[in-house]
Amino acid sequence: MFARVAALIIGSILLGIGINGFLVPHQLLEGGIIGLALLLHYYFDFQAGLWSALLSIPLILYAWVKDRAQFHGSIYGMIVTAVFIDLLAPYQFALPIWVSAILGGALCGIGVGLMLRYKTSTGGTDLIAYFIAKATPLNIGLLIAIMDVFIVLLGFQTLGLQSVVFSSITILIAGYLASICYEGYR
C-alpha cells in the first residue's frame, strides 16, 4: 500500500514537472488525455490539470466496470495528477526546445510508467493502453506512443510543424521510458 501511494505521488509530481517545466514553455504536447488538456490550455487558456481530470471521467467509469482495483488507482491518480499539474503550472524552465522535449518526455514517461507499475494511472489514455496490453501481447509503451502521436497531430494546424516534431520526440521518449518502468528493461 505504501509503495502504491508513493508511486502515485512521485509519478504525479514527475508529470507535473515534466509538463509545466518543459513542455508548456514551448507549447509541446504530451499526448493522450493530458495532451488534449494541453491543447485546451494552449487554445483557450484552460487549466490543463482540471481538464485532464474532466476528460478522463469516461475512462474512469469504464475502469469501474472492468477492473475495480485499477479504478481505485486511476481515480486517485487522476485527481492527484490533476492537482500537481495545476499546482506546478507556474514553474517553467527556459531551456532550448530540444532539451525540453527530451527532459519533458523522460519525466512524463517515468511518471506514467511508475504509476502503471503500481496499478495506478492518470486515468487517461494510459488506462486504455493498460487494458489493451492486459488483453493482448502488445507493448504498453508502444500503445501509449501510438495514441499520443494521434493527439499531437491534432495540434499541427495551430501549433505548427516545430511543435509536432518536438512533441513527437517527447512522446517517443515518454513511451519508451514508460514501458521500461512498467515492464522492466528487456
UniProtKB/TrEMBL annotation:
Compartments, record wording = Cell membrane
Protein's recorded name:
YitT family protein
Q: What parts of the sequence cross the membrane?
A: 7-28, 48-65, 74-91, 97-116, 128-153, 159-182
Signal peptide start-end: none
Recorded hits in InterPro entries, A to Z, give: UPF0750_membrane, YitT
**At the top level of its lineage, which domain of life is listed?**
Bacteria
Alphabetically ordered keywords of this record: Cell membrane, Membrane, Transmembrane, Transmembrane helix
